[in-house]
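# step 3/5: fold
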Amino acid sequence: MTRIIRADPPGQENFQAEEDRLFVRSVGRAMQVLRAFHQASGPLSLSEIATRAGIDRSAAQRLIHTLLMLDYIRRSSDDRGYLPGIRILDHTWDLLRLDPVVQKATPVLLELRKTVRERVDFSLYDETRMIYALRMQSKRETFYASLVGHSVPAYCTAGGRAALSALPEAQARDIVTRTALHKYTAKTETDPDAIMTLVRKAHSDGYAVVVDELVQGEVAIGVAVSREEGMPLGAIHVAGSLSEWTPESFVRKVSPLVTEAAGAIVGSL
């Protein structure tokens, strides 16, 4: 199977939660079934879902049947496995249309995209990762780069480091040390102390710059969108190709525009 570059949610929820009398364990297990698809590159069998969800086959069968009846899971076209169902998109739309930050960011990013003519994204902060909520592509379109809901690690992305730089340093360091630090390219920084040095630089500069760390041949600038000190809500990412830009020229041209856009979003909240 093709490896999916996707950041996992921070921490693992305790779906048993026996001491929490309000926690509905059957709902938690249903969410585990849906999460089984997070790293999948194709349809999953009943056994694969049970294994990935950490539940027994009998429970998985009942949950899959229920979710299938509700259209939150569907059979694959060859009828050999299961895929997420179309009804999940209803909830994606609800999140995006009702989120006040996404509402305010959308017109700002549309204007920014017209100006920079490079890929412009807006992501929401989720502690150890950033989740893309708005994606505006450039001439170099790729499948994964066009999808909302895709998540990337905070420690090695421009928007992620910008978001971390808006936190108190001790909190940012705690997040970095709790993250699985993978090397996505030869230049991905995985040393916690070196990452924190880059986070401090982003705090000082007002933006983060990442070159070749998640995507080979790409330079990206990220600026945090924060309501108040220590509370990042998300980040703007702008990415360009190293075949067209040097990191220095990209920063010189794009960083003032991204900083202005982030300020406009914060000022409208």
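# step 4/5: annotate
Residues 25-86 form a domain with the Arc Repressor Mutant, subunit A fold (CATH 1.10.10.10).
# step 5/5: archive (pending)
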